[in-house]
Write a structure and sequence with these properties.
CATH class of the largest domain: Alpha Beta
Distance between the termini: 52 Å
Number of domains: 3
Structural class: alpha/beta
CATH superfamily of the largest domain: tm_1862 like domain
Shape: globular
Largest sheet: 9 strands, mixed
Helix content: 25-40%
Strand content: 15-25%
Strand order of the largest sheet: 3-1-4-5-8-9-12-11-10
CATH architecture of the largest domain: Alpha-Beta Horseshoe
Number of strands: 24
Low-confidence stretches: none
Length: about 550
């Protein structure tokens, strides 16, 4: 398991492989780092004894670029990359972007629009007998019928549009291992279709036979949601309910049924194993130019997955889920020690965090794992009384990492929930006292108007103001020059022109220029995109 995964047949042969079991096609450059999904899936499959190759950013206009690794024995895995290809290629105003952080030297135009479908069509043409397994955030967010902002219409599931055999939603490691093992054993498809965390399609006859005595939640059909905004809103509500409750979800589309199995269960041990794999934390030597997306994460460490925040505009819940699963302290310490021997390590661990840094190892009095309830939110409309807000595990971890030889600085750069931080006001003081904030602390109030924040499922703006007051007080008392960097969204559903003006006036009053303001982009299957399309309040 030494070296990079092969990107061409010559590299595969140097490993003694005449044939690959699995080829992963990705819209990103190949960076062997745990922040890049194709590398994670490749390393996980490699750890199970499979021969895996990576085909990064193939030229979709040139068939030969899809042949450089040959034909896999088991399947092609296809991902658009770390970002939805249309988000990567276009601004919220639908203008072509001039920069792609996941491409050498930030050069745009290296991934096609709707990359998942484009790559799948090429594979179908060249290797019609090889199954295709979809994964990544583009596939996750488009796994059912969905409103597509770029075409301003409801599109079919990407599973049907791509004619793939299986779609893996979420982070995907457990699913791809099971798929690979069962295909290797030549198990029948009806058995493979039982794997948790996948989406597949059946004909009307197959569905009638296989689901005769099974429980499932039937979502409004594609035909209904494509032609009726009331039906689309009902679809969104049922989808969120089904995801929260972990049900089997079914949607009819023409003469086929799209079926989503309940998600797999991930544990601390699972995450510890995944992040212990031998990532090089470098781009493949094939590249001569830097990959900008690597710069901010090269010395970062993932401490947990999932987010119980439920922000309606965010894609995280649709992809990683609500449950927060944390790694063990020993696993993170081992990774930190290993990181100190990396040739590019200069003494600073840039981030130990996840989607939200201060959710690490928090517990729920009812379900142990926070984000597990299907009838209440952890943070909305206020912090749940059953959430045990105890930051001692995170603070203790940061302190222990800082004591490791060669480590000079340890920061949290992934942002914190300020409403959580206010539940233990000593927490902020300890972050500042321990020098765990690298000059800037990321927080996301998102807007200044409470009626907009309610639609976003964010706390009242006065909660943010209370946090900033505490932050300023603590940094002054400790004589630290630190800044809280707020993130805002303009143009969110429910926001008026007057609201935009009030947001602009507030930002101007801060007295410094902010790049952390973005126009709202309706991401597929998120509650806010439903509000954008239907013009109904997300909590209607």
């Amino acid at each position: 398991m030494n070296g990079f995964l092969p990107v061409n047949i010559l590299e595969a042969k140097k490993k003694g492989w005449n044939e690959l079991d699995i080829i992963i096609i990705t819209g990103d450059a190949y960076v062997d780092h745990p922040s890049f999904g194709a590398a994670v899936i490749g390393r996980v499959l490699e750890s199970q004894g499979f021969k895996v190759g990576i085909l990064p950013q193939p030229d979709w206009k040139d068939k030969s670029s899809f042949k450089v690794l040959g034909k896999p024995r088991l399947f092609f895995g296809i991902t658009a990359g770390s970002v939805d290809s249309l988000v990567a290629n276009y601004t919220p105003n639908k203008r072509r972007r001039e920069y792609d952080a996941y491409t050498p030297n930030g050069e745009p135009g290296k991934r096609p629009n709707r990359a998942t479908i484009v790559y799948a069509n090429m594979v179908h043409e060249l290797y019609p007998d090889i199954p295709i397994v979809l994964g990544g955030i583009e596939a996750s967010l488009r796994r059912f019928s969905h409103y597509d902002y770029w075409e301003n219409k409801v599109r079919h599931s990407v599973l049907l549009d791509s004619r793939a055999k299986i779609l893996v939603y979420g982070m995907g490691e457990k699913q791809v291992i099971e798929i690979a093992k069962k295909l290797s054993l030549q198990r029948p498809w009806h058995e493979i279709y039982q794997i948790p965390g996948i989406v597949y399609s059946l004909s009307e006859r197959e569905f009638s036979d296989l689901f005769k005595n099974r429980d499932f939640l039937l979502l409004p059909s594609f035909e209904d949601v494509a032609n009726d905004k009331d039906a689309y809103f009902e679809f969104q509500q049922k989808l969120m309910e089904g995801l929260k409750r972990g049900l089997t979800l079914v949607q009819k589309d023409g003469k086929r049924y799209v079926i989503q199995n309940p998600p797999p269960v991930y544990t601390t041990q699972d995450l510890d194993f995944i992040y212990s794999l031998p990532f090089k934390r470098l781009p493949h030597p094939y590249y001569r130019d830097r990959i900008p997306a690597l710069d901010t994460v090269i010395t970062s460490i993932t401490s947990h997955r999932g987010c119980f925040g439920s922000c309606t505009f965010c894609s995280l819940n649709m992809h990683q889920g609500w449950q927060v699963i944390s790694r063990s302290k020993s696993s993170i310490l081992q990774e930190a020690v290993k990181l100190t021997s990396h040739k590019l390590f200069r003494g600073t661990i840039s981030d130990i965090g996840g989607p939200t840094a201060n959710m690490y190892q928090l517990r729920c009095k009812l379900n142990k794992v926070p984000g597990s309830c299907h009838n209440r939110e952890c943070l909305f409309p206020q912090v749940c009384k059953y959430l045990e807000v105890d930051f001692s595990n995170q603070l203790g971890l940061l302190s222990e990492v800082k004591e490791i030889s060669k480590v000079k600085h340890v920061f949290i750069a992934s942002g914190i929930r300020y409403d959580l931080a206010l539940k233990d006001k000593k927490y902020l003081r300890e972050l500042i006292r321990g020098n765990f904030i690298g000059g800037h602390l990321s927080v996301a109030p998102e807007h200044v108007k409470d009626h907009v924040l309610e639609i976003m499922k964010k706390p009242s703006f006065k909660v943010y103001e209370e946090f900033i007051e505490l932050f300023e007080k603590e940094k002054r008392s400790l004589n630290k020059e630190l800044y809280a960097i707020p993130y805002f969204i303009s143009g969110h559903p429910g926001a008026t022109l007057k609201d935009a003006w009030d947001l602009a006036i507030y930002i101007k009053g801060l007295g410094h220029y902010l790049e952390q303001i973005q126009d709202y982009t309706p991401l597929p299957l998120t509650p806010s995109s439903c509000a954008f399309y239907t013009e109904y309040h997300t909590l209607r």
